[in-house]
Amino acid sequence: MSPGRKTTITSLLLTAVAASCGLHADEPIDFGRDIQPILSNQCYACHGQDPKTREAGLRLDQRDAALKGGEGGAAFVPGDSKASYLVKRILSEDPDELMPPPEKKKTLTEREKKLLIRWIDEGAEYSNHWSFEPIKKISPPEVSDKKWPHTPVDHFVLNRLEKKNIEPSEESDRITYIRRVTQDLTGLTPTPKEVADFVNDTSPDAYKKLVNRLLTSVDYAERMTAIWLDNARYADSNSYQFDNARTMWPWRDWVIGAFRQNMPYDQFVTEQLAGDLLEKPTQQQLIATGFNRNHGYSIEGGIIDEEDRVTSANDKTTTAGTLVLGLTMDCCRCHDHKYDPISIGDYYSFYAFFNTSAEVGAPGENGRKQKTAAPYISIKPGDKTAPLVMIMKEKPRETFILKQGQFDQPGEKVTTRTPEVLPKFEGYAKNRLGLAQWLTAPENPLFARVTVNRIWQQFFGIGLVKTPDNFGLQGDRPSHPDLLDWLATDFRENNWDMHHLIRQIVLSSTYRQDSRHRSELDDPDNRLLARGPSFRLPAETIRDQALAVSGLLTRKVGGPSVRPYQPAGIWEDLNAPKSHAEVYKLSTGPDLYRKSLYTYWRRAAMHPGMAVFDAPNRDVCTVERPTTNTPLQALATLHDPTYIEAARKLAERILKQDSDAQVTRSFQHVLTRKPSDKELTTLKNLHRDRLAHYQKEPASADKLLSIGSSPTEPTIDRPQLAALTDICLAMMNLSETVTRK
């Protein structure tokens, strides 16, 4: 193609593309919303901040650098897209000139091209990524429907819906609400009495009283702890080859205690990050620092102590970056971040906060003897037989940028500081306590946002920011940015009160909406919040609610982890010699029926009842569990002794009361509500068939009723009990039973 013809075609394309970009004519281009995601996804890998991978000397993540240009000159001319080199390259029909290059397997859509052109014509202004901007002090917006809002949250949601002429969904009934909020706050289902009390409470503050009762229960503290254990990568084993046992449950019990007393969240985080650096720390504040030592430890004979120590410091750094900043800082361990404005120097300066831990190895019941297992603390000072729990202790140590992340290749020396894109780390002690104070300062744009987003995710299944582990350029933009900032400000200004934050959410009309799908809305992820939330229950809740409705659940709080039913042979598959092998010893008595929070968590062979429902092995910090729906899950709830035994014990509870309405009352225990006529007919027919079967085949009834360690009630007719057991088990396997709706 001749140069003249190529220029003519490009000019024609430019004129056509510039005509429209998909925005209203009076709606200005927003760099963060419209342009930065395009540049991040399509350009920054080759033209970003990392000089090692930058091509043609062109950098596009900074305006001055883009105007300076690379080998081809300035990337664009502000105000003149037709004269801009970038535009010519993205519109070129020559594969040798087209950007992004075809071999990169990246393609700009027509809309993206139009947005870039209009942005350049409007002056090509840059701005910081939204999450690095200060949190805005915002007032709830006005809405037309004054009656709908119950909390300020609703003003933000309804304001957006009204702009789109969308009506919110109708309010869910009280039975649905109490089931929903009880599952969310306690991981259990409400009892029939609790349901009746709430439904019959005609006082204007009935909802508030219900929520306050739940928030002050130990069940709430245990539910919040279960979530935090994922965040903190808690386990009862050391990971790596032998994955031997260790004692960290005292730290887990500290977390339960913190939630029970509604400890202010800033204090909650500070004591875990730096409790040992507080003035005259208490034993409990020292135990709190076990948070930093929840990562894996190797006790293999061939490990290099310094390499193992650096790996542990990296884990602490990555966990803090994910959990309190919502940034993928681990990407900078070997090089500058490809997308976010975080350099390798930023990473190792942040790493320096955690590079002063005095640890070498960890105490383990089996395996190679450590040079030292310090620092640790006895949970009963003076008692030589008391368990030891790992804690933090400072040991001065220089920090260097590690070339390619290799422990034995130190480069430039660095000191403690935070990423330069965030507020300056000035006026704080250069240690973990100073870091905690910097995190919780009003100037920090990430800590409060990241936290309230995770809490929102707990109640809606998805955060206002869809990527809770990534508030960077490759993360999702908030669906309701003003609501996110209002929640963050309100949380901080109310003394980091978790109860207050949760009330704002669960008492809102937004949360109370019916969760049924609305076919007229093209919003499968419910980002508009025009309906209530619905999602698969977490693994712990599925098991615990079965134990609770059956009457088996043991309510003991805290203490060593327990070992419920597990198929034989799982631990034996680990690659460890017999001299170091752990043996799974089934718990007995009440310990067999404790909450899933207390189940022994072995990283290399986690409990299959947890794994099948997507619980993580906790090798790393996890702030969002995946949600799947697989046949294995149904096989578990149909055949696991836990559920069969729970169904039997529920059937016993019902049959010991009276013989009337057995199916209905069983249904109410499991699903909170009464069955519909169709459901009741189906279940009664099934019950009749199963009863006839067991009356004809009593050996089958005996086989079913023998499952589980708890004794069978001898005074109940066995075919009757077996038949109702089958019905209860069927109810426990309904989609509604394992779904939060």
Descriptive account of the structure:
The structure is a single chain. With 741 residues, the protein is mainly alpha-helical. Among the domains are: 3-126; 242-439, no CATH class; 638-740, no CATH class. The protein contains 29 helices and six strands. A two-stranded antiparallel sheet has the order 1-2. It has a two-stranded antiparallel sheet with strand order 3-4. Strands 5-6 form a two-stranded antiparallel ribbon. Helix 2 (31-42) crosses helix 6, helix 8 runs parallel beside helix 10 (206-215) and helix 25 (641-657) crosses helix 29 (718-732). The N and C termini lie far apart (61 Å).
List the helices and strands and how they pair.
Elements: H1 3-17, H2 31-42, H3 44-47, H4 63-68, H5 85-91, H6 110-121, H7 152-163, H8 174-186, H9 192-199, H10 206-215, H11 218-231, H12 249-260, H13 265-274, H14 283-288, H15 305-325, H16 344-351, E1 376-378, E2 388-390, E3 399-402, E4 410-414, H17 432-439, H18 447-460, H19 481-493, H20 498-506, H21 509-512, E5 535-536, H22 539-550, H23 608-611, H24 631-639, H25 641-657, H26 662-671, H27 677-696, H28 698-705, H29 718-732, E6 739-740
Antiparallel strand pairs: 1-2, 3-4, 5-6
